[in-house]
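Running this now, will post back.
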Amino acid sequence: MAFSLRTWPSRLLTRPWLLAFVPINASTAGFGVVLPLLILIPLHGSWADVALAATLFNSAVILSSFAWGHLSDRYHQRRLFLVINYAGYAFLYLFLVHVGSLTDLYAIYAVIGALSPAGASASNLLILEKFPESERANAFASFQAMSMIGSVIGLLIGYFWTLANDTLLTLLYVLGALALVSAAAIWYGISEARRALTTSHVARHPESFASRLRAAAANHMIVPFFPRRPRLGDHPFRRFRAWARAELRHELPLLLLATFLFNLSANLYNISYTPYLYSAGLGASAIFLVNLGNNSAQMGVYPLSGGLAIRFGSDRLVHWATYVRSVGYLATAALPLLVLARSGEFSANLIIYAILGGAIAVYTVASSLMLFRGLAGRDAGSILGVNSALGGIAAVLGAGLSGVLSVYGSYRLVFLVAGGVLLVSLPLWTAASVAYSRRHLAHETPVISEPSPAPAPSRSVDPGSAAAKTP
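Update: finished.
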């Protein structure tokens, strides 16, 4: 069975209230760049400090996501959860203005991570509940469009603000105000839906499924959040091995492992990228501009990804996107050897990071379709719970490995390792495609049985024959 994914609606905005998500995405996109720069410049931290902050953030996200998912199912108050999330961001940003040490920053950033899943669950459920089945594809496409537009606006604000003032702390006031605007718009401009769904419904729709495979605003970390936690209970590793053996001929284990490697490499690269740009001599405004190129490329390529998946196939697109990302990582590692002038460093990073942004847009759609088709007839909640756990592990490992390499290695080594991990995942994507093709053909091939012997011809009785005559 083939699945299509609507990545761009016939109208850009299906409902005016979706505009409420533009300011919050502008706020979080700007904060994703401000946070590492805040560690590096005013607090005089290091690359290792950025990695430690990311580790604490990811750990808080993982631990709190289960709680927020449970609360979302128990209390059907989508607006309240969104307001708590966005207003919480605003006040925490204001606290960061007065932060005086790295320890205080770690604590506040961990609380921001703990708040993040509240909005992720509530926003998806709000759209599922507010739109009928026939309009959900356009609704989620509009939601993604508002997210991308907001991200570009936030990075533009950060660029012009730092270009004019070269101050990061006052920019946090602007980002906090944007988050409060979204909180107010949602509270006063959106009503609760009459029907109440649970987080398990998110996994049943390819559009909502793809929207969950999102880049976290802070540090552009790829963390897939899914509704249900994996079933742990007694002997979880033993049961996981039994499940893996039972699913050996299925493509799902291969997809989960390939996705894990992709997320690991993405976290390792993105967490180290801003400190690398700063070490290369780029100012805050230039770093904002490099990130703007990445988000603009995503916004330009994402609407085309659905059509590309239909035309070329999601399997082929995943290979292309993964290969392009790995080449981009390796090219970043080679830049210090090839570029001597600071202007050349800026231009090269702007181009490379924009290409990586386009690749992640294609990868998100294509990998979502590959994983979604493998869930047919399966317990989607449990499988996505495993995927969520693996995504969380990849996020923490990526941040931790970045911190270790910051002490014992170099930026070049980080980017080489990230590129190598992606190249290792390519055979897994190929094997998953082959496994799916074999399983798909096996279900479609008709079973040919031995032909039954032809029935003996019935004797036709000639009325004129002797047998036809009655005595």
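The chain has one domain: 16-229+246-444. More later if anyone needs it.
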